[in-house]
Amino acid sequence: MQLDNRKKEVLHAIVDDYVSTNEPVGSKSLIERHSFNVSSATLRNDMAELEHLGLIEKPHTSAGRIPSDKGYREYVNSLMTIEELTPKEQLEIEKRINTSVDEVTELIKNATHTLSETTGFVSLAMSPRLKKSFLKQLKILMIEPGKALVVMVLSAGVVKDKVVRIPNFLNDEQIMKISGAIEKSLTGKPLDEITLVTVETAGKSTDVPEPLLKQVLYEAYAAIKQADELNIYLEGEHRMLSLPDFSSLGRARDLLGTLSDSGMVAGYVNEMENAARELGSDDSYMIRIGQEITLDGLDDCSFITATYNLTDSVSGNIGVIGPKRMLYSKVISQIDFVKKKLNEEMKKFT
Amino acid sequence: MQLDNRKKEVLHAIVDDYVSTNEPVGSKSLIERHSFNVSSATLRNDMAELEHLGLIEKPHTSAGRIPSDKGYREYVNSLMTIEELTPKEQLEIEKRINTSVDEVTELIKNATHTLSETTGFVSLAMSPRLKKSFLKQLKILMIEPGKALVVMVLSAGVVKDKVVRIPNFLNDEQIMKISGAIEKSLTGKPLDEITLVTVETAGKSTDVPEPLLKQVLYEAYAAIKQADELNIYLEGEHRMLSLPDFSSLGRARDLLGTLSDSGMVAGYVNEMENAARELGSDDSYMIRIGQEITLDGLDDCSFITATYNLTDSVSGNIGVIGPKRMLYSKVISQIDFVKKKLNEEMKKFT
DNA sequence: ATTAGCACTCTATCCTCCCGAGTGCCAACA
DNA sequence: TGTTGGCACTCGGGAGGATAGAGTGCTAAT
Known about the structure:
2 copies of one chain form a homodimer.
Chain A: H1 5-21, H2 27-33, H3 40-52, E1 56-57, E2 66-67, H4 69-79, H5 87-97, H6 104-119, E3 122-126, E4 135-144, E5 147-154, E6 159-165, H7 172-186, H8 196-203, H9 210-227, E7 232-235, H10 249-260, H11 262-278, E8 285-289, E9 301-309, E10 315-323, H12 328-347
Antiparallel strand pairs in A: 1-2, 3-7, 3-10, 4-5, 5-6, 8-9, 9-10
Helix pairs in contact in A: 1-3, 1-4, 2-3, 5-12, 6-12, 7-8, 8-9
Chain A binds a DNA duplex (30 and 30 nucleotides) through helix 2 and helix 3.
């Protein structure tokens, strides 16, 4: 994007003003609020140019300008400067996240909650992608005839379990044997390398009769597969209703309707993550603005996520969905700080 | 409430019409839609009477009448007749609930989801109240030095677990001893009879040194206490935005704001449950209308819940929050049917 | 390249007017 | 005593119209 300095400043100013006032900004008010050493007529020329480039647009002929998606994009990519949070703000976030919890999941939920409260927007987090973590323990406990609990401890310090159905006449001892065999041969294997065949091979060493054995192995396999399924935590949807950007009931309904399908949102976050990886992006955050988001009803939103790390190979995402008319520099630094604290806390679990 | 037959019919008709049209209903349109064999002037007299009794009210002088909370209450208590669902509707619900799941929790979530979809309102369920269930198994598994997993199997077929911190130098064998001792002496005890003292007494029989022992016992106790904590599942909040009753953004915001605090809603459901028990109510459902609900922002809502039973002594609630302008007879029978199916499915887990 | 000036545009707001559905009340009636 | 037709009155909501004000694009001068 070829923009001379003043045009950059004008775009910057338009975004800033529009974000803070929620009113289309005109050449005159631009002069009033900022110290451009030129006349409003000059700015009008610049603005016409910026409009021509598709960076700003007019809601209607005789109104001021508002940034277009492309304008926000330019702002985010090249114009804004991210400022650190004040010590006070940092403290506030630290206090909320540091509540002692026993499980990583709780920690992530905490962070999500904190993020929604500090930004005032919808926050979300994905559970850690556990495909690359490996099995440290696997135990099958008899619960009652026909029912057992598969407990798995993963390298990332995560514990998963699943109730499974097993043949009625299997006894404690047989289950222990199977459990031991699986654990022995799968310990240390990354989850994404464990297949049904791997599990069945592992079970062969036991003397449990074939058909019974097979069912248990299958259930154990299913439990392992379920362990790396992704969850999403969404919070603060109702906050969107307080924003002037969604004061039209129709927009608000579409937005919350889409957000209510958490599976769909999770899928989209995954897509973003994968796209970023393919591009080899080294940004510490990902951002999608307005129409760039392919989810229904999020045209007026921006979607910002960062990646947290539970271990070197196990990570997840945390971020917010807010109006695209947001204070990007602030929100990004909030997300970034929450992520940083989250990473620090996570070290305690691994 | 002393009402002659025609006045009852008038109130009935007003509620019906208002529910279906969302317009204040006047004497004239009442005559048109129903076969009262009297003139509109007569109905006007009746309506004045009903208003005097506080059963209906006018939004403003020259408008028709709408039912007051008291009017809905009278309608629900004495006027409406609950009709069975059609076989088709029943089938639809059965189909959705019958998806095979391995855990009671999943089943409850399913039912909640179904209820929100069939009613089009917010649905909710409380997790089973497990205070009266008893411990069938308790195992403590070492995860890694300093960390263990307490797994509990309860009489209601529910499995609960919790990661706890334990002293670093405790070894597998010691944990097994403690685990065995607790299990041996607490098996068969209802959760609400287990206290810290009970657990500590149980642990005394082991030869594990005092201070180490004590911490593990405390953590085990905490895990047991956490097992009977209540959860609430809320779903379909966004559906409220599609209802004309919440077309004012302010109302919608207040409503969703309150619903976002699920702990508060859970507390309220508990209150309702306790109140119903104290009254020895034998209704199969509980209902609160408008201002009867003490939660902020629910003035225009009705809250209907039924009680499901996991076992004789373990139960929970399931129900909906909808606009008070709802088809009560229909919604109640939907809840009732979902509850019935839920009870049937639950039998398979116990 | 910048600026002052000007005619033009469009929305948002406020007023006013008026329709119509609905009411309460009264007098007459069975 | 309960029911009815008639009538004057009320009030919200929608339609129409005028106006202010912020903003624009264009032109001609600097």
